[in-house]
Amino acid sequence: MQTAFNATLPLVIGSDHAGYDYKEQIKKVLTAAGWQVVDKGTYSTASTDYPDYAHPVATMVEQGEAAVGILICGSGNGVCMTANKHHDIRAALCWNEELAALSRQHNNANVLCIPARFVSLELAEAMTNTFLTTPFEGGRHQKRVEKI
Q: Of 37, 63, 73, 139, which shows the fewest CB atoms inside 10 Å?
């Protein structure tokens, strides 16, 4: 898989209970594609609180310890809101491949948020691939991102 991110750094992933099954499958796909994946939890389908996983994922990206992050919860909203509290995090809630591409092309998003209860696993995997392989266009978009 070609990547739009620094592939020498790991990818960090996290989810709450609603995103656990998707997280586990996406980890397998990413590892098979050659990514080093750091899993910040959760580690089961037992009910849990999404900020407990979104903050560690966002922190790794924020501190330059991970190239990119992926967060998964039921609606995607909770993990997205939490991640976007971090400086220099541009977390994007996506529910189709076009949004995943645009979040990269126009917004230089560095955390993909997936709503597990609203997209199929196949679509989640496709969005992940699109997100990781789509470069930021820069140009007129750069000044907009800087205003964030």
A: 139
pTM over 0.85: yes
Q: Would you say residue 132 lies in a domain? A: yes
The domain of 82 spans: 11-147
Q: Report pLDDT digits (tens) over 22-61.
A: 999 999 999 999 999 999 999 999 999 999 999 999 999 9
Q: Which token pair is 13? A: 């992933």
The answer as to whether 1 is a domain residue is no
Active site residues: 73, 106
If one counts the domains in the chain, the total is 1
User: Measuring CA to CA, which residue among 83, 82, 81, 39 is closest to residue 61?
Assistant: 83
Match 């620094």 to its residue by tokens.
6
Strands (DSSP E) found in 1-148: 11-15, 37-39, 68-73, 91-93, 111-115
